[in-house]
Amino acid sequence: MDTLQQAQAAYKKRDFRKAIRVFEDVLRTEPNNVTALRGLLACWTYLGNYNKADLVVQQLLRIAPDSVEIKADLAELRFLQHRYSEAIAGFQSVLRLRTEASYFEARVANAYAKLGQRVDAERYLAQVRSHEQLDPETQFGMASTFLSLGQPVKAIGAYSAMWRSATEMRNRLISLLALVAFPVVWVGESMPAWVKVIVGIGLTVVMLFRGVIAYALGLLLLIAIAANVALFWVNGPRQRALRLGAASGLWYAFLLAGWLQVW
């Protein structure tokens, strides 16, 4: 197994730190190796280090400015950076060159939904639904779009469809975690930040009553939060999973203390 294959094997095993080291070893001798650069880009993106990912994608664009795959990589990175207008422009340029493009249509729909442009989001969702078969990644993107549009029932349907169609265990796990974490994901996707703060304060006040029912609801919320952390850990970016887990730490401690007092 050569060095590049070792890096790709580490990436498939989700050992991203090792993959980064080996991809960088390849690039020391072959600085314009597109496969190694795209692998490095995928690793940094998965780990949530968008600044380093940006440096890699810019290098890729200098080497292969007309590559459809690299244009798609750039659009995906802009989406993850919440630069939705740039992401839309990038995905649309890819759509003009690709025939099998349901995933990119779903991404454009999601970006429009994030920008609050409901009509455009619905238009692209209709295009996605016109395809006979949808892969799990496209269904996941559709679910996120439905949440942004305030359509939770359709989002649950998309997650369920992802579960039914997934052949890989990883995709089944992602869809299951998304369903378990649905209450938290729904709040995260569809509510502005100030509403999330009020919801969090309200739940904490409810917990102060120390009733068994209140703590039972809190336990369900705890399970949903844990599933959401796991979802980001499995599906990326892992940096967001770590932030979410740290932010939830006080809630875990408070809930545990409350249960000990109740029982």
Descriptive report:
The chain is mostly helical and 263 residues long. Among the domains are: 1-65, Tetratricopeptide repeat domain (Serine Threonine Protein Phosphatase 5, Tetratricopeptide repeat), CATH 1.25.40; 181-263, no CATH class. Helices cover 81% and strands 0% of the residues. The protein is built from 16 helices and no strands. Helix 11 runs antiparallel to helix 14 (212-235). The longest helix has 24 residues, at 212-235. It is globular, with a radius of gyration of 20 Å. The N and C termini lie far apart (57 Å). The mean pLDDT is 80.
What's this model, at a glance?
With 263 residues, the protein is mostly helical. 81% of the residues lie in helices and 0% in strands.
Number of helices: 16
- Category from helices, strands and their pairing: mainly alpha
Task: Supply Rg.
Answer: 20 Å
Number of extended strands: 0
Strand content: under 5%
Average predicted local confidence, pLDDT: 80
Shape: globular
- Approximate helicity band: over 70%
Order of helices and strands: HHHHHHHHHHHHHHHH
Termini, distance in Å? 57 Å
- What is the multimeric organization of the chains shown? single chain
Spans of at least 5 consecutive residues with low confidence: none
- How would you characterize the largest beta sheet? none
Offer a few descriptive terms.
263 residues; Serine Threonine Protein Phosphatase 5, Tetratricopeptide repeat; 81% helix
SSE blueprint:
Blueprint: H1 3-12, H2 16-29, H3 34-46, H4 50-63, H5 68-80, H6 84-95, H7 102-114, H8 118-129, H9 136-148, H10 152-165, H11 169-180, H12 182-190, H13 193-207, H14 212-235, H15 238-247, H16 249-262
Helix pairs in contact: 1-2, 1-3, 2-3, 3-4, 4-5, 5-6, 6-7, 7-8, 7-9, 9-10, 10-11, 11-14, 12-14, 14-15, 14-16
